[in-house]
Protein 1
Amino acid sequence: MYKDVKELVRSKWFQGILTGVGMAVIALVIFQAGMFVGYRKAAFAFKFGDNYYRTLGDRGPKPFQIPLGSKFIDAHGTAGRIIDVNVPTFVVEGPDAVEKVIRIGSDTEIRRFREAATSSDLVADDFVVVIGTPNDNAEVDAKFIRIMPPPPVR
């Protein structure tokens, strides 16, 4: 019997089945990773709509009239003008006219150009670039904030 099993494992038929199963497992892992990333982006966009007016008051259009276009809101940061500061959060209006709430944590690195800065250096009408991760309150937990000069006027 041992000889039969050894021959079976070495056969091209068994090797083909094993290769097919291995490729199917790899495809499923890639598919699952894509679903995980898509779920995170969709959850952020969904919660953003739920919390829009609770966070921003009565600014801008009604939630169902927000011009989101055909893509999800970028959940991992933004760049734009600060419109309100209430530490530990502040609101940034991005180039797509979408306002995002940014949460400053104890591990957030803040810089003005290359020099170190603090949350007290953030003021309305400053331009910033923010990199972070989305949280369950439709906010971006900032990991890095850079205060920039205003963009050139066209």
Note: The first helix runs from residue 2 to 10.
Protein 2
Amino acid sequence: MIQFDKVHKSFGDNHVLRGVDLTVGRGQSLVIIGGSGTGKSVLIKTVLGLENIDNGKIYIEGQDVTQMQPDNYMSMFGMLFQGGALFDSMSVWQNVAFRLQRGNLKRPKTEAREIAIEKLRRVGLSPDVADRLPAELSGGMQKRVSLARAIAADPEIIFFDEPTTGLDPIMACVINDLIREVVVEMGATAITITHDMTSVEAIADKVAMLQSGLIRWSGTCDEMAHSGDPYVDQFIHGRAQGPIETLR
């Protein structure tokens, strides 16, 4: 579904991506792990077209993304942002239906609201939440609204950027389960960025570690536990000592 072919991206002298090769199968849930500042979010932004790559190619279903029509291309994606990124001046349903009222996906207001309420139900929120403002909701409820927005247009590909950040362990588990259920139910292809190893185990079909601008290792969760790679072992066990440099 998605292929990164020797993707490079630099910001001045900061070489963030140094030749990333990675393939994500259709309907697969890939989780990308790696330390802060290793380029995980930048990698997602290159797929979305928010950052132009310097060299290499990115393909969606075998097509070079630079040759695809922007409206058709963007309609394939859903995104759950790290902080939720809800519009605080809009009601919950308007947030969920934001994509449905713009561009080539535009629906009548009544239909967009109905879809939004159905997606809210899918993530465990009742219709009475629809007309409330995001500020009136708990952090966990806001995250569910963000997930409902990500799936509102039934995208083929969904990105999750640190989906459990700021949540208590119980709510994080709930969100992980919801993500897994939704991805499987929709048959969507998913890429998740996370530092939370509990999320990795709950969400991932495949795990890839981004280190020093390259995919250091990839495999299943079971394989990760016995990777034999010192970088992977240090990261998943949260050890201060190891090949990954830490600030003292």
Note: The mean pLDDT is 90.
Protein 3
Amino acid sequence: MLPHKLALFLFLLVPITAFAQKQKPPSGGRLAVVVDERLAAVRATPQLTGKLVRRLGRGRMVAVRSARTSPDGITFFLVNVSSRTHGWIQREALASPSHAGDDRKLLELIKSSEGFDRISRARIFLDHFQRSSFGPEVLLLLGDTAEEVSSQLTTAATRKLNEPLGSAPEFSYFLNYTGLDRFNRLRITFIFNPSTKRFHYDGSAWRELIRHHPNSPAAAAARKRLEMP
């Protein structure tokens, strides 16, 4: 991309996401992570009508103790959320690095997602499934999606900042745009071109892909992304 040829300003971020922070994993079973929060209701009994104990957010770690299938064919896992909280959660809400095939399942979920949701699930994959052979593909997806999102961020920030600005440099208003915050928490960095007044993804995932998987087909694609003007 264009970072080395233009006077671009870097949006520096602090890795304070739920994924970056060191969450103490619960004990008592096989570790798994919430990847589909739409299904992440922890219930007192293994059934969809069971009493709600709590809902879990995307990226939350649990310990899987056992499994049971309800009469309507839904498989539930009995999980420890903490030392004091446990209950039953639908299998599809979780993915476990130690369970064969869960990396592929999460990859398919990433592919079916869009925008921020795709980036968020890709970050979970990269943080928890570091030994998966699908890593290069996920890195490429993350980078491509972040660049797609940068156009949406440009439009939204321009609309928001369509008013007289104060004495601070114009680019600083853009790089303080609140729409960047949730990406900041996922360790996604955007740069801003003051000439075109557009955001661009800084390309970190593509560079990581080339560095760690230089001979993969995805790395060849990543090199092309970074060479684009």
Note: The chain has a mean pLDDT of 91.
